[in-house]
Amino acid sequence: HESLVPGELGESPVRATDVPEPGAVTIVVPTFNESGNVRQLLRRITESVPARLPCEVVFVDDSTDDTPEVIRAAAPDCPFPVTVLHRPEPVGGLGGAVVEGMKAATSDWIVVMDGDCQHPPSLVPDLVATGERSGAALVVASRYIEGGSRAGLAGSYRVAVSRAATWLTKALFPRRLRGISDPMSGFFAIRRSAVTAELLRPLGYKILLELAVRSRPDRVAEVPFVFQERYAGESKSTAQEGARFLRHLAGLRTASPLSRMVVFGLIGLTGFVPNLTALWVLTEAGLHYLPAEIVANQFGVVWNFLLIERLLFRERRRHRHWADRTVRFALLANADLVLRIPLIALFVGKFGLAVLPATALALVITFVLRFVGTEALVYLP
Ligand code: GDD
Ligand code: MN
Prior knowledge:
Mean pLDDT: 91
Bound molecules: guanosine-5'-diphosphate-alpha-D-mannose, manganese (II) ion
Helix content: 40-55%
Number of helices: 12
Distance between the termini: 41 Å
Largest sheet: 7 strands, mixed
């Protein structure tokens, strides 16, 4: 690494072989085919950061074009160290790239920003200064507070989608996102000591959300910013990215066993619909209600299985073959029915409970057992 001694910008460069000193910043920039932008970005960083704050820049690149070569060609003109980490096998998309960059960072502060000049580098020293001044571990550049705007978010469709996504996300994580008006922002500063890299499971674009929910920085601050137009090229976001965002939300929301149990229960409740529908059709068709109950229950089981597979244990499916999972899930669901009756009999006969509370208690117990059994026996952690 080579870096300019701070304060020497504009004069004949005095270079030190050090990495940035304490209080300095590592700017992490994820890039995917941004060859038309990176030179301009480095120029703007050079103009507005090193004179105010010692810095280094780490690009984490998943490009298929010549972005890494363009960066390497531009790096010698920069008065700060520039590193390119090219990932031959990208995992986690944009968020995965940012976490790689954070692991490579050496400064007290990390600023994450896009490679297409939509985030003004002149704000980098302000983000860090705000953090230092307020003691915050996370400083978000927000489009949604006084002084901020999203001039560069083209089209009312994108604005509407962005607004809906922000609303949904804030509704799902009211506590973790308190004080963050713009959890979708891709521009923020975080203390390196607040990043719990081993706990992160980045999935696509919303790395700030991932950090706010899983790393839980204890204090947050915000600075307004104007989301600029892209300098060159087009957004790399796709419809698939939207689907990935929803999976990211589901994964974050079901990170604790308790919240998984709640979702498990909610999905179980929706299973009443296919169950009762099948029961109605079968009894209407003349089947005796008892065999009809047993058959109808299987409709509920299949429905629950499909939803649980997709929403709750998506990442944990690979541990067992799908046929294996199906059999185990079905056995557990039916064991639940079989266990409930003797349990009720036990509560009524041995403990003298009335039938209704005994049934309610048995329902709760078999529900929890089925949840624990599903976690441990169908989907390994
Ligand atoms: N390494 C890597 N891998 N970088 C990626 C990937 C990837 O898979 N996908 C995108 N990037 C890079 C882009 O090259 C760019 O530097 C940056 O991530 C942002 O990507 P854009 O495609 O320009 O995103 P956007 O402008 O649509 O969205 C930005 O603004 C949103 C707010 O409206 C991002 O900052 C979003 O995170 C943010 O929510
Ligand atoms: Mn962009």
